[in-house]
Specification:
By secondary structure, this protein is of the alpha+beta class. The chain is built from seven helices and 13 strands. It has helices at about 15-20, 25, 65, 110-120, 125, 135-150, 160-180; strands spanning about 5-10, 35-45, 45-55, 75-80, 95, 100-105, 190-195, 200, 205-215, 235-240, 250, 255-260, 265-270. Helix 4 (about 110-120) crosses helix 7 (about 160-180). The protein is globular, with a radius of gyration of 18 Å.
Amino acid sequence: MSRLIGYVANRADRMRDALYQEREVLRNENAPGEASGWGIGFYAGDEVLHKKRPTRPGELVDWQSIAGDVRSDCAVLHLRQPTVGDFRAENAHPFRMRSWLFAHQGTIAGFDSMRENLAETIPDFLRRNIRGQTDSEYLFHTVLSLLHDAGQLDNPDIHRGQALTAISAAVTLVERLAAEVGSTAPSLSFILTNGRSMYALCSGEAMAYVERQGLHDPPEDYKAPPTGSTPLRYAIIVSGVENPPPEYQALPERSVAIIDRHLDVSVEPL
């Protein structure tokens, strides 16, 4: 199965430890024969970076190892089981455009029949950024085109209301085009961030989040920070958790969780 993870923290040096603490929820084993791969996108100063690679069938993805050398307070991680597009680096999540990162879990049924109509709604300069074959990358650029229409594509401090309007409009458009070609309702759960705020849409795939203060279950090789260091706080949003632990909050269907830079989490209806 695919897995989608969003991480926001108040420190850049503890992502590996935080992912270890959440390991039972994040654990994912591929079924034999599944072709998949992982990707991580993150912010390091003014840079937006990502790493991607394929996995072997049945391989256990070790998120702590993937994040081991990453120093970032905001990241999107994704394990992909391809449904549209074969496994290539350009089809792997997360996708990037300028300061935005995006990863999707779900499928737009009938995408091949609606691809051209959806592409026509995306401005040329954004459409040229589409490198792969996936429905997910087109969904990302649909959201970006609506942010562009609102004059917010390059606004690092975009108001949450404007972001929610773009997300809602993108969902409405994709659902309408899918209905026009006779497809079932698309599954559109995704995470979108510009490094300042993170938006997680729950639509078709279960998602849950947790807010933590401190490390209560660190790895064996944990190195404690110097005395007086700022205590770690973080929030994690994860997909594919049908029965989350009690400390996790399940997102209602067709809602958006928003994590701001103060690590305040709010949930808004779509």
